[in-house]
Structures are given as structure tokens and as C-alpha cells.
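Course assignment 3, question 2. Fill in each field.
Student: A.L.
Task: Predict the tertiary structure for the chain below.
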Amino acid sequence: MKCYYEELGVERNASESEIKTAYRKLALKWHPDKNLNCLDEAKERFQLIQQAYDVLSDFQERAWYDNHREQILRGKNSDYEDNCLDVFQYFSGSCFKGYGDDDKGFYSVYSNVFQQIIAEDAEFMDDEMEVEKVPSFGNSQSSYEEIVGPFYAYWSAYCTKKTYVWLCPYDVKAIKDRRILREIEKDMKKVVQKAKKERNEEVRNLVAFVRKRDKRVLANKRLLEERAALNRQKQEQNRLEQIRRRQEELEEVRLSRDAQKDDDYEEQLKQLEQQYSDEEYDEEDVETDDADGLELSSLNGDILVGEDDTEDYLDDLYCVACNRGFKNENAFANHETSKKHRENLGKLKAEMQNEEDVHQNSGRRKEQEEVEQTDEDLKPPNRSRKGKKDAKKSKTSVITLEGQDDENKFGKEELEKSLEKDENGTDTDEGWANANKKGDSNNNIIVVVTHGSFN
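Answer field:
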């Protein structure tokens, strides 16, 4: 077996770019299409070049190859005490030819390798059923879910069943000292653990090597990628569908709200039209009835209506609540049945009731104040003789609280005459009495205000 670095013709510390350049040159040189004269040799050499590049171009595989290069190239002798299978010889593409199911094919070669490993471990298994539970490698047509997947799941976590007790350099049966025996067992435990760890790593690395080149795994990987892409596409379609449905729902809600608003507007317009149509109907009835009345009057020329009768007739056809007049009884009767007339009539009654209450209250207060003022003015004053002379100089003003008609003027003159003083300049009680009688006969309250002072 040849070293991969020697196969590509590069140094062990070569860079990734140097390895890639060397691979391209050798691949062009040994490609089977360019070596038709030595086709078999070209195919074999081209496969080795391809395998060397696959290992050295991968960082992890190159590191593992560098650590185990001598073991892979040299291999283990079959006369080892453990007599285990040398798996390092299968870390190369030269151990198989093609991916068929023939004896030298990929699946036949590695199926035999894993069967040998299980056979070695079977000697250390207590239950024979454990061997049957180990998944097989299968062939090129094996199902991934039933065979390929379980196989790599088991072997990727492989743990050997070997005890490696033959690695002990001492004869335990010959040792009698228990202290020395305990020390030997402690050292052997470390040796066994190390040997198991190395074997497990060898087999697990082999499984990783095989899995990377297994066409069934690559096909399943592509299938999973296609399924993932399809799932992403479906999820995107579902997301877009949800967005579309949400937009439709929002549009329906918006349209329903607009329709509700339109219905409300139409209802309001209908109410306004109904209100205005009632008023127009009343006016049309009035005009129609007026025209009919005028036509009837022109036809019946012998019917004469006096001016007073016309005014009374029009007063009967006048609506105080609505402040409107009608020229015939039919129009007035139709108006009285309208909604607007009833509303205005209710408002008018309420206003009249309020005004009546206010007027009654103010009238009672005013009447009480006038009575009190009249009683105070009608009291005969107590004045001295000296004051009587000064009283001549005072002026008497008569204020009528109600009315300025001729009867009030007459009452005023009578009151002034009755208030004339006697020869001694004193006011007589008879004059005051006459004045009161005259004032009462005119149904007016006369307030006499004397400008002057009383002593």
C-alpha cells in the first residue's frame, strides 16, 4: 500500500492549494479517457489518486491519517495475541472495486469486515441473542429506514466486548500477595481501558469512512434535502395562503363596516326625506286646496263673504303652534294630523304653562306691594300749622300706575280738586275720602307723591 502523500507527489506539510494543484495534474494525466491503451491500469491509478485527494482534502480525515499513518501502511500481524481484524487496511479505496454487490464490490467487502468484528466480540457475549440484534450492513438495494439507518446508528457508537486480559504481562495465579495483586489489577484496569478505547476509535473511524462513501447514505441525504425543500415550499405556500385568507377576512370586515355605515346613512336620509316630505305634502295640500277654493269661488259668483266673516274664517284656519295659515279646512285638518304639528303644539303648551306660572307669581307679588304702598299713602299725616304753610309751597304729583286714558285724566282732576286746602290751609278729611272714592270708581290705583317735607 502506498502513502497518500506519495500518491499525489507532495510533502507531508503541503498546503491545501498545493494538494489541490497536484490532484488536478495527476487526474488529467491518468484519466481513463486519455489512456485507452492501458485502460485498466489508468482506472486503478485514477481511483487511488481520487481516494488520496478525498482523505487529504478533508481536514479531520487528514489529521486522523497523519496520526495513524504508520499503522495503516504497516498493518498488524495476524499472530497478535488478540487475533483481531486489522481494520486499517480498509481505510483505502483500493480494498474494493465499484459499488456493486459482487465479491470485490463496496457492499460485499465492508459487509464481511463488520461481520468479522461481530464474530470477534461474540466470544465475549454472555447472551447469543445479542449477536442477532446487531444490525447488518446490507447491500446496494437495502432500505435506509430499515437497514442502513439502524446500522450506522449502532456502529457509530460501537463499544467492543473484548476484555483484553491477555495484555497482562504477569501470571496472576502465581501472585500470592494481595497488596501486589491489587496494584497489578489497578494497572491492568488502565491498560484494558486504553486498549478498548483504541479499538472503539478504530472501528468508529472506519464506520465514518464507510458512511461518507456509501451511495445509499448520499441518496438518502439528497432525498432528505428534497423533502426539506418541499416542506419549506409547502410552509411558504401555507404562510402565503394564511396571509391571503387574513387579507380576505380583513377585506370582508371592512366591506361589512362600510355597508353598515351606508345603511346607517341611508336610514338617516330616509328619515330626513320623510320629514321633509311631510312638510312638502302639507304645503302642496294647502296650495291645492287654495286653488280649489279659488276655482269654486270663481264658479259660484253668487256666494259673497263679508270682510268680518273672512277674518273669522281665516282665524279658524290659522295654526298658532306652527305660525302658519291655511285657506281651507281640509289643509288645516291634514296639518293637525302631522307629526311636526303635534311636536310644536306640545312645546307651545309647555311654554304657555311656564309663562302663566311666572305671570301669576309676579302678579301676586306686585299686587301685594301696591296694596302695602296704598295703605301707607292713605294714612292722614300729622302736621303742624307751621308745616301747613310750607306745604303750600310743595308740589303734588299724581302718578297713575295703570292706564293713561281719559278716565284716568278725569280721576286725576277730581283728586286734585278734592285735595284743595281749606281757608286755614289744612287738608280736610272729606277731600281725602272723595279722592279715594274717585280713584276706586276708575279702577286705578293712584299714588300721590308730595314733594316737600313734613314737620
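Instructor remarks: Residues 286 and 331 are 5 Å apart (CA to CA). Residues 320-361 form one domain.
Grade: pending
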